[in-house]
Amino acid sequence: MKFTEMLEARWNAADTLLCVGLDPNPARFPKALASKPDAIYEFCRGIVDATADLVCAFKPQIAYFASCGAEKELEAVIGYIHEYYPAVPVILDAKRGDIGSTAEHYAREAFERYRADCVTLSPFMGFDTIKPYLAYEDKGAFILCRTSNKGGDDIQMLTVEGERIYERIARLAATEWNTSGELGLVVGATYPDELANVRRIAPELPLLVPGIGAQGGDVDACVKAGVTASKGGMVINSGRAIIYASAEDDWKDAARAAAVATRDAINAARR
Ligand SMILES: O=C(O)c1cc(=O)[nH]c(=O)n1[C@@H]1O[C@H](COP(=O)(O)O)[C@@H](O)[C@H]1O
Description:
The protein is α/β, with parallel strands linked by helices and 271 residues long. The chain has a single domain (3-270), classed as TIM Barrel (Alpha-Beta Barrel). Helices cover 45% and strands 16% of the residues. It is built from 13 helices and ten strands. It has helices at residues 3-14, 31-34, 39-51, 62-66, 71-84, 100-113, 131-134, 153-156, 165-174, 192-201, 219-226, 240-243, 251-270, and strands at 18-22, 57-60, 91-96, 118-121, 140-146, 159-160, 163-164, 183-187, 207-209, 234-238. The strands form two sheets. An eight-stranded parallel sheet has the order 2-1-10-9-8-5-4-3. Strands 6-7 form a two-stranded antiparallel sheet. α3 (39-51) packs parallel to α5 (71-84), α3 crosses α13 and α11 (219-226) crosses α13. The structure holds orotidine-5'-monophosphate. Residues 21, 23, 61, 93, 95, 120, 147-148, 186, 188, 210-211, 213-215, 237-240 line the site of orotidine-5'-monophosphate (OMP). It catalyses: orotidine 5'-phosphate + H(+) = UMP + CO2. Belongs to the OMP decarboxylase family. Type 2 subfamily.
């Protein structure tokens, strides 16, 4: 099944646009896990089990695993999601971008080694660096467009040939770059005006929207700005605000409660 079909099916079946970000930071783990050798895997598995019915996707961030030498745990977490929650797509947040011959290896890493359904990519080096991922016809890729951080202004807001760079990226991803039909865009919840603009340029593309929760993005504003005509089309990510809702013994229940509240706030905003 293609990534976009899987996402569409999940949006409809579970009635949720929430994505939980798996950004495991041992310094913030519950005390009960701190001394365990497989703490990263156990933490992610606990969060996955506590929230899977509430999400349209999980988004593991590769740096949190790689910085701890925990690539095997990342493989295992993604394998666990596929085995126990096969309807939930996994977006590997790797933000890759390199020349084609190297990109082929990054694509293999994401889709064959880690078995992700989708990956995040930087468009900075141009279309030939995106192409190797599109060769995996069923797999998705979210292209960075208008990122949630302040420094995103430095380049993404520059005007070139009458349009902002983020607008050009949105237009390319919606048209000539989208040869597989599996592209989406990353747009921060922290910039609802630009989010609305991206939605005008790309009326149907899936949008991965980080920046609610710990980064303070407004749920209501971002949902109203980013939904498609049929009130969907968004993968709204929250990481820290959900996965670190408690560091006590109730960490799984607290993560679930935070995820329920976030999913419900998103759904209230789109109805
Ligand atoms: O591509 C991303 O996921 C991403 C893009 C962006 O513009 N801003 C952004 O915060 N992210 C990622 O989204 C997650 C946000 O996590 P929280 O701020 O904890 O909800 C992190 O994994 C970031 O790396």
